[in-house]
Fold this sequence. Notes:
This protein is α+β, with helices and mostly antiparallel strands and 208 residues long.
Amino acid sequence: MNRHGSNNPLPLWGSLLVLPILALAVYLHFKPAPEQMVPELTPLNAVAQSEAIAPRSVETAGPIVVDAPAALSDVSAAPVGLDPEVARTAVQQVENSVYERATAMFEQEPVDVEWAAAYEQSLRAMFAQYQGLQRVSINSISCHTSMCRIEVFTPRDADADFFTAMFYDGLANFRAGELKAEAAITRRMEQGMTSVYVARKDHTLGFY
């Protein structure tokens, strides 16, 4: 009995198993490299990406711009105070004008001798007897027809203020208000002089 020396053929199921393996190997070998994902630009991340691509260096960065009007608004709105010396000069000019007008009116007025003498005597008694007015340095007391003038030395503003307060108090209270009448103060500050004018009953002071 003769023996045949031929090989056994590959079973059919073996060929079916090999084909898918070969196809996978070919796919993996020729598969292209995955592309880098590029995020979609939105209004927010577009700015961030542009800054990341082109960052600003110290040399190329421009100066920081400040809104000048807004920054200076508080400074420009601050009120500017009036210089004390300017204010004092302005007050002196007004007071000197009143002082000169009152002096001119008084000196041009005729003298009612009887009334003037009696009222002057009462005013001198008030300065001599009323507490507070005794400390005042009197320059002159004189009366004409419709008014009297008392001139005192007031070297400092405090002296003038003290005299003014004491005089009005004395005029209202001395001898139970016997001398009470319309009165007005005028000052020449640079000379340290204060004048007070007292109107005669039923008369007014017309220099203001």
